[in-house]
Each structure stands twice: as structure tokens, then as C-alpha cells.
Amino acid sequence: MSTDSHQETIAALPLFKSFPGPLKERIAAVFVEVSEQESMAGGSKLLSAKGQLPGEGYILVKGAVTVGRRLSAPSEAKPPALLGGMSEFDPHNERTADVTAVGDIELLRFHWDRFNDLLKERLAPSEFAIFSRALQNYSWLNFLGDDADDA
Fold first, then answer.
1. How many domains does the chain have?
2. 53 Cβ neighbours under 8 A, 6+ residues apart
3. Residue 58: which CATH number?
4. pLDDT tens digits, the chain, 151 residues: what are they?
5. 53: domain range?
6. How many DSSP H helices and E strands does the chain contain?
7. Contact between 5 and 129 (Cβ < 8 Å)
8. In a domain, 90, yes or no
């Protein structure tokens, strides 16, 4: 997948549904800049609620994953999907879900610290606050098992 294709996939995340086009594009560009593309085989565990330190986030760009949450039944996520965001807001700094590849998947892996640092450089404080609130709402909806696409 090309950088432009990744940027389009990221811009299509439900998280950005209410964002103005230029802001969405700038944030998507930062995601692309700080991410590395990875492939994983079906059955591979991407995230684990037990024992895995947070700090990395993922954007699913191809394939599907099963998300097993603490408070709700497992669900399937398909592209585009942002994974690993809840640990950014958990006061105990823990992962909250087990995420397993259903089949072969492609994703973008990034470090939240690097992403946030670069985003703060590129956005006005008010724009960064908008993004932070939207990410927190999106992450909580996913944590609770609600449909974040409707957020």
C-alpha cells in the first residue's frame, strides 16, 4: 500500500467522521509519518489485556481481527480500525482487550508518545484538544463495546 493509500484509509476512521477535511488530512499525515507497516499471520495475537505494556497503537488496514473486551462479548474489527487507544486513558496504564488476527492482516504500528509529540508541533492547541477529546470518546465507546462508527 502506498503512503497516499494509507493516508486515505486513516482519514476514513470513524474517529474523524465529524472533523473538517483539512484537519483530518493533517492528522492522518502524522499517523503515516510515525507508522511502520507490518504484516501478521492469522491467529497471531496483536494485543493482550494481560502483561503487555501500552505505548503502541495500531491501525488495521487490511484483514480482520477479533477484539475480546473485559466488559462485552468479542467482536470483529475491519479496516479502518484504530487499535490500542484505550491504554492512553486508562489510569492504570493497562491494555483492555485481547486482539487476534482472524486471517492474515496488514497494519500500521506507531508509538503514541511520538505521535502525540509530532501532533502537538503540527496542530494549534485548540485542534489538538479537539483530537484528544475525540480519541478519548472513540476509545471509551470501543472499550464499552458500543459501535464507535455511530459516535
1. 1
2. 93
3. 2.60.120.10
4. 577 889 999 999 998 988 998 999 999 999 999 999 999 999 999 888 775 556 888 999 999 999 887 666 788 999 999 988 765 555 555 656 788 999 999 999 999 899 999 999 999 999 999 999 998 888 777 666 654 443 3
5. 3-146
6. 4, 8
7. no
8. yes
